[in-house]
Design a protein that fits this description.
Elements: E1 4-5, H1 7-14, H2 18-27, E2 40-41, H3 42-47, H4 50-55, E3 59-60, H5 62-72, H6 86-94, E4 110-111, H7 112-120, H8 124-131, H9 136-143, H10 147-155, E5 163-168, E6 175-180, H11 183-187, H12 189-192, H13 198-202, E7 224-225, H14 227-234, H15 238-247, E8 266-267, H16 268-277, E9 289-296, E10 303-315, E11 324-329, H17 331-341, E12 347-353, E13 360-361, E14 365-373, E15 379-384, H18 389-393, E16 413-416
Parallel strand pairs: 10-16
Antiparallel strand pairs: 1-2, 3-4, 5-6, 7-8, 9-10, 9-12, 10-11, 11-15, 12-13, 12-14, 14-15
Helix pairs in contact: 1-2, 5-6, 5-7, 9-10, 14-15
Length: 417
């Protein structure tokens, strides 16, 4: 008589699907394996209630699960966020965030209740970055650039592939090996390479030469940085970094063959890993999502709300100039903005809000001056005649900080022209 059961034996003993037994053990409905990995004793198996085990199973395919997690990221999907794919569900299973219920391991069936619980987690974007690698197209979306720009990033040697996957494109070229990139590493590129004008890269129009094309690749011996460059990455002063080096024994050692005693050089990736581990830098999880409230100046003056991803305010140099607010938008919102501001009476900008800030009361009429679809697929809209420069320069708008980079959490990026 059998005394040790694997999952197939246990499911057969209870006359339930193997997937049902997997979910029962993964969800705690029955005890974990008590004899060894993937093995249960006779007592545990016979104590399980077959009807409860069978009733608890509600499996869905990987593609359905991927669509539900994508929807949880936001509708419409924010820029800098690629869709979750069926293969991404496989990576979440490998990470232990979902229970494998069957099917091909790359595209597994999973439990819909567990997917729903994962979708409700506030750290879902961070979990996806940590556990789901990206192909080149997805990596370009995560960085918010064109595929050609991401190819330049790869040429520069900044991200290294962490794995590969074989894809059969059937009629479009047959079997191809596709590199996969760590999503955290991709998202950190704008942090660890602060000298790059990432806004210029993200807003490069289709067909234009990449702003990254003129940069030199990483040397074969590796990327070395001075303490001043470490300070620039962390957004602090050089004295602060020198203090970290003195106080923290695990701060990376300088590279012996590079730099001097007075100006030591450090391995770039080692420094970035240290900064990340010590919470000196953070992985950008996504763009700032701002709400723009306009009021039509015609009869009634009804208000209209629009979403702007990654808003950027360019301030005029003089009182007679125009301030411009731009951001990524949906086609429907861009069309509605154009129609609202092109009427006989135009429209007035009432307020602009961003997460973790108070609403900004903004006087003045606005009009759409530019809209273009970037090579990365995003639609960018620019509105002009926003009269904020005087308020900012007088210190009357404290939540708008002068920054050289946009997209900080809860902050509208501002640039003086």
């Amino acid at each position: 008589m059998r005394v040790v059961f694997d999952e197939s034996d246990a499911a057969g003993r209870l006359r339930v699907p193997v997937a049902a037994w997997r979910w029962a053990t993964g969800s705690g409905l029955v005890p974990a394996a008590d004899v060894g990995p993937g093995r249960w004793s006779r007592a545990v198996v016979e104590a399980a209630d077959p009807e409860r085990v069978r009733a608890a199973l509600r499996g869905i395919e990987a593609g359905v699960a991927a669509d539900r997690l994508t929807e949880a990221l936001g509708v419409p999907l924010p820029i800098l966020r690629p869709r979750v794919t069926a293969s991404g569900i496989g990576h979440l299973v490998k990470a232990g965030l979902l229970v494998y219920l069957g099917g091909e391991p790359r595209f597994p069936a999973v439990h819909e209740d567990q997917v729903a619980a994962l979708a409700r987690r506030r750290d879902l974007p961070a979990l996806l970055d940590r556990h789901v690698p990206l192909g080149p197209e997805q990596a370009a979306v995560r960085l918010g650039v064109r595929r050609s720009d991401f190819d330049q990033v790869v040429r520069l040697g900044w991200p290294a592939p962490v794995a590969t996957v074989t894809v059969d494109f059937k009629r479009q070229g047959g079997v191809t090996t596709v590199p996969l990139y760590d999503a955290q590493q991709v998202a950190l590129l704008e942090v660890v390479h602060p000298c790059v004008d990432w806004r210029a890269v993200r807003t490069a129009r289709a067909g234009r030469r990449s702003p990254l094309a003129g940069l030199d690749p990483v040397a074969p011996e590796g990327d070395r940085v001075l303490l001043t460059e470490v300070a620039r990455i962390a957004g602090v002063g050089g004295a602060t970094v020198a203090g970290w080096r003195r106080r923290h024994p695990d701060f990376p050692d300088p590279v012996p063959v590079a730099g001097t005693d007075r100006h030591p050089r450090f391995e770039h990736r080692a420094v970035v890993a240290w900064l990340l581990a010590h919470d000196k830098i953070e992985v950008p999880t996504g763009p700032t999502l701002a709400t723009l409230v306009l009021a039509g100046d015609g009869v009634g003056g009804a208000t209209h709300r629009f979403r702007l991803d990654d808003p950027w305010l360019a301030l005029a140099d003089d009182a007679g100039g125009e301030d411009c607010l731009s951001g990524w938008s949906t086609t429907d919102d861009a069309d509605a903005l154009g129609a609202l501001t092109a009427g006989e009476f135009g429209a007035s900008l009432r307020r602009l809000t961003a997460p973790d800030t108070g609403p900004l009361a903004v006087p003045g009429q606005v009009r759409v001056t530019d809209r273009f679809r970037s090579g990365s697929g995003g639609l960018r809209v620019t509105l002009a005649s926003i009269r904020l420069h005087q308020l900012v320069r007088r210190g009357l708008v404290p939540v708008l900080a002068h920054r050289c980079r946009c997209g900080a959490t809860g902050t509208v990026g501002v640039r003086g022209r």
